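My hope is that you will study the record closing this message with an eye to the fold:
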Amino acid sequence: MPGSDFVMNIYLYKPFSYSFLTKNYPEKFRFSQEIQMLGKNTLTELRDIINCISDTGLQAEVDSPTSDISHLQKAKEKYPSASFFIDGVFYNDMRSPRAIDYSEEIIKWAENRKVGTFTSADMQTIRLNSLSPRFGYPYVYLHQGDCEHIMVFADAHILTANDCLSSQLYPRMYAMNRGVSVMCYMCNIHAAQWLIKHYARLPQETTFLCTKCTQSYCYKGGEKIGEFKLYPLFNKFVDTCVTAEESRTSCSAVSASVS
């Protein structure tokens, strides 16, 4: 019902490499997705709806483009650990027996260097309405070991008749940045599916190639031509941007079917 809870909009940004020793770093701070949550939703529900390419596949070296990579395509199941860092507290996802506490070593490091006093908690028990985040302030979402996203609590408001009133649809993806596929360096026709590193026959240390170009240029009779490292590229993106208007339309359709 309108007024029964509040809605909060949360922005997540794409991870990027950064070095404090480099000025005018070339990589840009890019928006990734906007998520709407109710005050009663938990941090684990937020974690489950976040979409990141790092959860799709593992970057492990393989022998050839014909290698079976099915075991690499479920990174989130193989490495289920994750953590939110919000106002000095690490909220860890410990639902899986294989999950590890990301905060343990960081807290020890901070104590040894007298950086500050941090604590940890289980995100499964934390609801959004129990937090007091600062709007517009950057927090951190960490998963897959070293994949870090800046996370911002953008704004909040009491539920109104104009909001989606189907509670089972929250949290929900409210908007997502349009993805752009990485194209093959050689043909520039097909999307890249393989990452080639340290290959003397290519002009760059790291090169993105499609399957056809990889097989024809880097292999002969199924054997490597020279020495290089081959990694699968999980080039999975959303073809179209999910807009706020589309999200509202979807919510209205579901609400009508439920009622």
Q: What stands out?
A: Residues 46 and 191 are 31 Å apart (CA to CA).
